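Quick note —
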Amino acid sequence: MTIQQNIEQKLNSEFEPVFLQVENESHMHNVPKDSESHFKVVLVTTKFSGLNKVKQHQAVYKVLTEELSGEVHALALHTYDPKAWADSQGAPSSPNCMGGTGK
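Predicted structure written out below.
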């Protein structure tokens, strides 16, 4: 199973999302081909209702502790409860890589 699949499985299991998108954005960075080091997560769940962004992100970090202590270098989190998601215009686009060196 890939790192992306592990992330998707864990988030689906823990948060029962209304919407989940996990994108491997490693190709946008200076890393070796086929890396799984940079991810963007858009997660919409009723479990975030009443929680501020910090608490939402902490909940995701807790579930993904293993991945974040391993090969995942960057995790862009866009978390919403269903109302905030309905009010939003979707998750923002990721910025271009600002540099760094690959292996």
